[in-house]
Design goal:
alpha/beta, 5-stranded mixed beta sheet, globular
């Protein structure tokens, strides 16, 4: 779209080089996208694996159209926002993916990471990933949310404190952390003083808009290097609209503030989505000079539960017969731990093949069974650190090609979608 730049604010021309990662593309996320596109921001990468539904359209940006119902949120938002972009060379990219598929290396190419997410487990996961970005490359983090007619937005500069510092610890553990609190289909959940109770958590387009506006305000203020915005929270109240700005304080002994990425990880050519385990082993062998090493399976932590194994085979949940699985335990669905007979699948393996349950915590060089599998298929997030144990010591690697430019190109291929 061709805009008359003389009629727009002077700061808009300065926004073209800004890169934003927008996690969550529902009500608040779609409104923030529209505002950022019209504010001149040059690159917006959308990440969401949910689909748009008409029953929640009243809270979404008006750039979302009736025919977008049923589309992936990230795809619809990217298509519509790019049509509105003020930046002449601006681009929007869509990732149909979950949060667990994106690691610290992917985050570091952005100036801002925006969380427009609806549950605390997701927010906590992003916070931990963000904390592991190398010092000096960590983007600013903006977190927004709404409840009824209220909106709140946090702006974290990347030092001194993190999102966990401003959360009650009871919100981050077990079932409470998994409860969605905004626009997801079905019953919603609200966190009360003593309990979590099931209900619809009503919000409005106006509350979502105030949240989105404040997100953009923080970006503009940060780019103008305004004082006293780092590590603050802005809370908007309704009728009449007014707001408070609070200075945030670090939590004593915050576990997430102690998180950090490894010092000077070895950066390799390639990317997690295309490089196979065998190729990675070869790169490590060249770096270490021998084959006496193992590659640890990626460790996920979600809502206080740790997942650290690759399941090669397990027992059928219905009949107890051994069956192949070959997936990271975090991503396994219940119907994937069924034998061919119980699941109705066609058996592609030799009936004489002996299968035993096996849970792998590390891939050793001499075991070549999974060498042809891509790292991403084995459960490693794009941009994650890879831990190699060599002579009892840990050494860390990452792929240079896991930055946003390479991944955004891959994202145009539907087979990339998670």
């Amino acid at each position: 779209m061709n805009y008359n730049m003389e009629k727009l604010s002077s700061h808009i021309a300065e926004m073209a080089n800004i890169r934003v990662l927008l996690l969550g593309n529902g009500a608040v996320g779609s409104l923030a996208a529209e505002l950022m596109a019209k504010a001149g921001i040059g690159t917006i990468v959308f990440a969401d694996m949910g689909k748009l539904t008409r029953d929640n359209a009243a809270k979404h940006s008006s750039m979302i159209r009736r025919e977008d119902a049923g589309k992936y949120k990230s795809v619809a938002c990217a298509e519509r926002a790019e049509e509105l972009m003020v930046a002449k060379e601006g681009h929007c990219y869509a990732l149909v993916t979950n949060l667990q598929s994106l690691g610290p290396r992917f985050y570091e190419d952005f100036d801002y990471v925006i969380m427009a997410l609806d549950n605390y487990a997701a927010k906590e996961y992003v916070n931990q990933t963000w904390r592991q970005v190398e010092e000096g490359k960590r983007p600013k983090l903006i977190i927004g949310g709404t409840i009824e007619e209220n909106a709140n937005v946090y702006f974290l500069s990347g030092n001194k404190l993190c999102f966990r510092c401003v959360c009650d610890e009871s919100w981050l553990n077990g079932d409470v952390a998994k409860k969605r609190t905004s626009c997801t289909d079905g019953a919603q959940y609200r966190i009360g003083s003593d309990d979590v109770f099931e209900e619809h958590a009503p919000t409005s387009h106006l509350a979502s808009m105030k949240c989105a506006e404040q997100m953009l305000d923080y970006i503009i203020a940060s780019e103008k290097q305004m004082d006293n915005i780092d590590n603050t929270m802005t809370y908007h109240y309704p009728y009449p609209r007014h707001y408070d700005v609070l200075k945030l304080q670090a939590k004593k002994d915050c576990p997430d503030c102690r998180l950090s990425g490894p010092e000077k990880p070895v950066r390799l050519n390639g990317n997690m989505y295309q490089t196979t385990l065998g190729q990675f082993k070869e790169l490590v062998m060249k770096d270490l000079g021998d084959t006496h090493f193992s590659v640890l399976v990626h460790i996920y932590e979600w809502a206080g539960v740790v997942y650290s194994q690759f399941v090669s085979a397990d027992y059928c949940r219905k009949c107890g017969k051994p069956t192949k699985v070959e997936k990271h335990e975090y991503s396994i669905q219940e119907n994937e731990v069924l034998c061919e007979k119980c699941s109705g699948r066609i058996r592609h393996t030799d009936e004489r093949e002996k299968i035993e349950n096996e849970f792998i915590t590390a891939f050793v060089f001499e075991d070549h069974r999974f060498d042809s599998r891509r790292m991403f298929e084995l459960g490693y997030p794009i941009g994650a650190y890879l831990t190699v144990i060599h002579d009892g010591d840990a050494k860390y690697y990452m792929f240079e090609g896991d930055g946003y430019e390479e991944v955004s190109k891959l994202a145009q291929r539907k087979e990339f979608w998670v």
